Amino acid sequence: xxxxxxxxxxxxxxxxxxxxxxxxxxxxxxxxxxxxxxxxxxxxxxxxxxxxxxxxxxxxxxxxxxxxxxxxxxxxxxxxxxxxxxxxxxxxxxxxxxxxxxxxxxxxxxxxxxxxxxxxxxxxxxxxxxxxxxxxxxxxxxxxxxxxxxxxxxxxxxxxxxxxxxxxxxxxxxxxxxxxxxxxxxxxxxxxxxxxxxxxxxxxxxxxxxxxxxxxxxxxxxxxxxxxxxxxxxxxxxxxxxxxxxxxxxxxxxxxxxxxxxxxxxxxxxxxxxxxxxxxxxxxxxxxxxxxxxxxxxxxxxxxxxxxxxxxxxxxxxxxxxxxxxxxxxxxxxxxxxxxxxxxxxxxxxxxxxxxxxxxxxxxxxxxxxxxxxxxxxxxxxxxx
Length: 385
What we know:
This is Type I-B CRISPR-associated protein Cas7/Cst2/DevR. The chain has about 375 residues and is of the alpha+beta class.
């Protein structure tokens, strides 16, 4: 397993996968299109027709940007304060979101539409900028960090709440009107994939720029810091605090165990009982489900091990941080049991197994947060923040 911290391991790797598992309580984090008086939930249909809530990658990136800008006071190019796309500067050195999430700059209208940040970034003369600006389309930098958004584990049950809008949604009620809002309680899995060599770099049409490694590391730390503080305040928007955070570093691109984590992650409730009651209308005896226990998480290590064995030759390290009080076992117990499975005498997988057991570890999620916090505190003291 790589020595050093998570940030150093990522910067040494070719490819990194991050999977964030969080709970949502009585919320509608990412609404769909809805209507004048109906605030719905973004949903997706699974293969069997099950409908689960989802959060778009755009909404997740917006939450992260808002945390960077509003809480950490970092310069953000795609800011809510900028009303038009042609106000974007595209300055990789200045803006953390241009670096990590990418940017698209309009080209139409000639060189005057290029902001000073882009000119400074590529150090291009007016003649070269005019050549670029005459091309159709836009200057685009796809971000090295990408995501498909978050997907709920459980089916959306169709729960609603009723709220009053302070303004009329129909144009008739002078004192506002009633609004129906879909809400849910669910557990979400949110993956990110990081194309590590592209962090802090931008090559475009013969121009190139790259920031120094210290700045790359600090921006990665700000990314993880945002995950620990994800979510927004307001009606039905609870904090999205991670209960499990998986960080895998790999030798090749497009490698990851997100699918196995999706299948291996389990949510259960202890002490579920069927309680009889008499139907007041028919007099028949019916049964209702009563839960007297707490929600608990678990991981099917056999399923997880299958994915780890498949990618064994490409895995540098996998760190799985868990909030131990939510799980049925401790981090040490999961580590020992997983290593026993990976070290088992299975002739079909022995060739790909190598020393993979030593490269995968569970640890308390608090230790990951402490590592990020400690690094940022040191950096901010040095920089006087």
